[in-house]
Amino acid sequence: MTITRRHALHLSLGALATMGACAQHKLQARDPGxxxxxxxxxxxxxxxxxxxxxxxxxxxxxxxGRYPDLTTDEEFADLFAQxxxxxxxxxxxxxxxxxxxxxxxxxxxGDELAAFARNNGMxxxxxxxxxxxxxxxxxxxxANRKNAEQLMTxxxxxxxxxxxxxxxxxxxxxxxxxxxxxxxxGLRKSIWLRLLGKDYIELAFRAAAEADPQALLVYNDNxxxxxxxxxxxxxxxxxxxxxxxxxxxxxxxxLGMQAHLWAKDEMPLNPQKITAFVREVADLGLxxxxxxxxxxDKHLPTDTQERDRLIADAYRTYLDAVxxxxxxxxxxxxxxxxxxxxxxxxxxxxxxxxGTLVRPLxxxxxxxxxxxxxxxxxxxxNAPAR
Length: 386
Ligand code: XIL
Description:
Blueprint: H1 5-16, H2 23-28, H3 36-39, H4 50-56, E1 60-65, H5 69-72, H6 74-83, E2 86-89, H7 95-98, H8 108-119, E3 123-130, H9 137-142, H10 148-162, E4 167-174, H11 191-196, H12 200-211, E5 216-221, H13 229-247, E6 254-257, E7 260-262, H14 271-283, E8 287-296, H15 304-322, E9 328-333, H16 371-382
Parallel strand pairs: 1-2, 1-9, 2-3, 3-4, 4-5, 5-6, 6-8, 7-8, 8-9
The structure holds (3S,4R)-3-hydroxy-2-oxopiperidin-4-yl beta-D-xylopyranoside.
The site of (3S,4R)-3-hydroxy-2-oxopiperidin-4-yl beta-D-xylopyranoside has 6 residues, from loops.
């Protein structure tokens, strides 16, 4: 077997493990019963980090980390490196930031994040190449049916090549499904669909694979967890899309499930449906990355204890459901501390009716562990080993 970089990255992850079997064994360990050391629970207390608990089960745990939070807040950065095995860039590699002018790329912030990951022995994960949001004005003004394919290919290849050899995985296409737009295939009516038709997703994956044949290429989307009509339609459409891509030989390797949960009835969780869904994805031969997990608490009670309990319950319910499936290799939270969360912004849920601050992440603003942190650690400990 040739050792691809995908394997090599898993091997280097093994080297990060503070205990457990050798890396080679970890690669093969799929049956939870096949090694005592894999099954032993890590003791969870205020000295434990999620990295240890995840690694003990052969899981990757990571978080989004933004520029400049990681480069200016030393206390936070130190904790980040202790807690996480993987760093995902926040906004720095979205199109309008990394490619602000037609003939100018700006890799400075992405490079700083890549260096942070490298210097701390962490995996680096890229987010995101093709999305209907975060496009620069120049693109919206200049792109047409004739030049869109070339603009897309050029962008994808330039960005992916720049980080080739450094990226564990790339979110190649983000949020392409939106059943609310009422197309038979469930695809979102986006600028990409309008200019290139539905093959734009395949084109993006092919361009990325050419530029970095060894990165894990991910299709990323949201709302697959939701036990609503929309959630059901999203799951169906995502499966259909993945099947179609695979049938055409598209180099898609994994599904990213954002998992922006809402701890409220609008987005109820149904663990059986979530487990069944990840199983169906795994049956296609794909890996699964929980890619942007957090819990929106906009409509939860003011009382901190009660709120934290409900948030922790959402983390626990979701993770217990997805981690049943060994093809789920990675869990990424969309931040580690409420100090830095997109949910602090009013338009993303920061405008709680009672005026109190949001608490969507595993640690509070003082970087202390919350019930959500313990729920994640327990879910990792309870998961079958990978
Ligand atoms: C969010 C970032 O966290 C914010 O800082 C930014 O203002 C908006 O985007 N789904 C995605 C992510 O795929 O890119 C989004 O990130 C959150 C929703």
